[in-house]
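Q: Hi! Curious about what Uracil phosphoribosyltransferase looks like structurally. Here's the sequence.
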Amino acid sequence: MAFTVVDHPLVQHKIGLLRAADMSTKKFRELTAELARLLAYEACRDFPVETVTVEGWCGPVEVQQLKGKKVTVVPILRAGLGMLDGVLDLMPSARVSVVGIARNEETLMPEPYFEKLVGSLEERMALIIDPMLATGGSLNATIDMLKRKGCRQIQALVLVAAPEGVKAVTAAHPDVAIHAASLDSHLNADGYIIPGLGDAGDKLFGTKQ
Ligand SMILES: O=P(O)(O)OC[C@H]1O[C@H](OP(=O)(O)OP(=O)(O)O)[C@H](O)[C@@H]1O
Ligand SMILES: O=c1cc[nH]c(=O)[nH]1
Ligand SMILES: [Mg+2]
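A: Let's find out. The predicted structure is below.
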């Protein structure tokens, strides 16, 4: 599996817009949802399909149908919630497993505080959503959590990734595919992605000081 930047003009245009510092909470939420929808579209590319025959206007016609892929979408609280509606637009029947992880601001270590996963994870593909992949601690902790419960097919959608985080996650979990809108330059001394978006959770929830 691999780390992929979704190099689609719409994705690249929208992630560029999202970087503007003077953006309203409303606009930041809208763009995040739109980007999540586009990344989810990309993540479904390899979903299995089968050919079935339906009765068309001029007789039977062979069509392709999705072959019953079971998905659970996994938003990492808080910021992952900003991507949830966009993903569910494409997968309205998907179950949602919510994971709460706060990054300790001093140590940058992930501190899990909530876990409500759906059942039968061994039968489902998990689609983890979080706008920011910085050190990779939060994503790795979420993947560990899902694997402990038997989940074997996992993908992640992020808006912005830092090289440090990509390295940490692909080293720990080479089987997990990550789709990103951008691979940025580096982390600063406080663990923020440069150029990044700033604090995505604060921007989505309007808690920026
Ligand atoms: O790759 P990492 O170094 O773990 O950093 C990324 C994590 O940090 C942010 O969440 P934060 O802990 O700030 O929580 P929030 O969503 O409540 O703002 C972000 O949404 C990721 O979950
Ligand atoms: O740049 C970053 C890093 C972690 N969390 C964010 O919201 N932004
Ligand atoms: Mg935050």
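A: A fun detail: Residues 25-43 form the longest helix (19 residues).
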